[in-house]
Amino acid sequence: MQEGRTDELLRNSALRGFSSAGDVRLAIYHCSMNPVSRGGGRSAVAAIAYRTASRMINERENVWYDFTRKTGVVQFEIVLPEGLNAK
After folding, report:
1. How many CA atoms lie within 13 A of 16 on its CB side?
2. Per-residue pLDDT tens over the stretch 7-38
3. CB 48, CB 56: distance < 8 Å
4. pLDDT: is 15 or 87 the higher one?
5. Which one, of 67, 31, 34, lies nearest residue 49 by Cα?
6. Ordered DSSP codes for 1-56
7. What's the N-to-C CA distance of the chain in angstroms?
8. What is the pLDDT at residue 18?
9. At 50, phi and psi to the nearest 5?
């Protein structure tokens, strides 16, 4: 696609709506990362449990975080470095 063509398609699609047959639908991907530090009184395990709406234990402090009642999480993936065994 030519440079600037994506912006043009998005503008035209937004103006016309998606009702006619030749419209282009584009998914807009978003990724954000924020550091979590124990020095700031935060827990990486709690942050992961909240974002994934799951139940996890912080083995360092022996504290459970349960966010299974949270709604709105459609899908999540936890990616670990190669060779790391997670329980």
Report:
1. 14
2. 666 566 555 555 555 667 777 887 888 888 88
3. yes
4. 87
5. 67
6. --TTHHHHHHHHHHHH-S-STT---------------GGGT--HHHHHHHHHT-EE
7. 44
8. 53
9. -65, -50
